[in-house]
Amino acid sequence: MNALLVDDSRLARTELRHLLQAFPEVTVVGEARHAEEAREKLRELQPDLLFLDIHMPGETGFELLASLDVAPRVIFTTAYDEYALRAFEVNALDYLLKPIQENRLAAALAKARLKQTTAAAVAAETGVAGPPPPEEPAPTLLTEHDQVFVKDGERCWFVRLSDIRLFEINGSYTQIYFEQNRPLIPRTLQHLEQRLDPRVFFRANRQQIINLKWVEGIEPWFSNSLKIRLRGGPEVEVSRQQSVRFREMLSL
């Protein structure tokens, strides 16, 4: 994958270039200091991947993307956490907070590789080179290492998914359990299930999705179902159908 780095900070570009040396599948083909220079580099180099800062002199990273007819896959790199929700609304692959951690960079590049492999498979099957015809983008799968922006009324959080132990339906909203917080978000469990890594997040029943890494205890329950106790609470009853799936998924 050819990558273009766009950041007004030379130090940030140098640090990111250094981190990318650990990923031989990525070749940094250019750098840009602001949106105008980035547009020129994008036309000239046509990279597969764009590492994009948000706050830059002149136009922001979002304004740069809005001005493009066709954009490569985007990974935002920024020191600000309040734009995470907007970043995913423009179908960014990932949102990395500075200073960038190598494990977060690795997770973002894994998503980029998956997208590239899928596009290549479609091209091979259809015999059409280049990107497939425009279609509704598939939701980006979030790993436990990702951080998400959560807003409930006047309160906001930027929380790592690994810290969330439970998603639970509450009326027409979904309630999130992390630390002592219980914010509500306007998302359905069906939507969340499509976005969350199924190796970590398990749909226990129609009302709840649990983080398997927070399971503290399991006991048999009625009609061959299971009851799961999460660290920090609460207890979750797994439906009979999902109990069968749970046993199959986690058994040797």
Automatic annotation (TrEMBL):
Residues 150-252 form the HTH LytTR-type domain. Keywords: Phosphoprotein. Pfam families: LytTR, Response_reg. The modification 4-aspartylphosphate is found at D53. SUPFAM superfamilies: CheY-like (SSF52172). This is Two-component system LytT family response regulator. Residues 2-113 form the Response regulatory domain. One of its GO terms (molecular function) is phosphorelay response regulator activity. The lineage of its organism: Bacteria, Pseudomonadati, Bacteroidota, Cytophagia, Cytophagales.
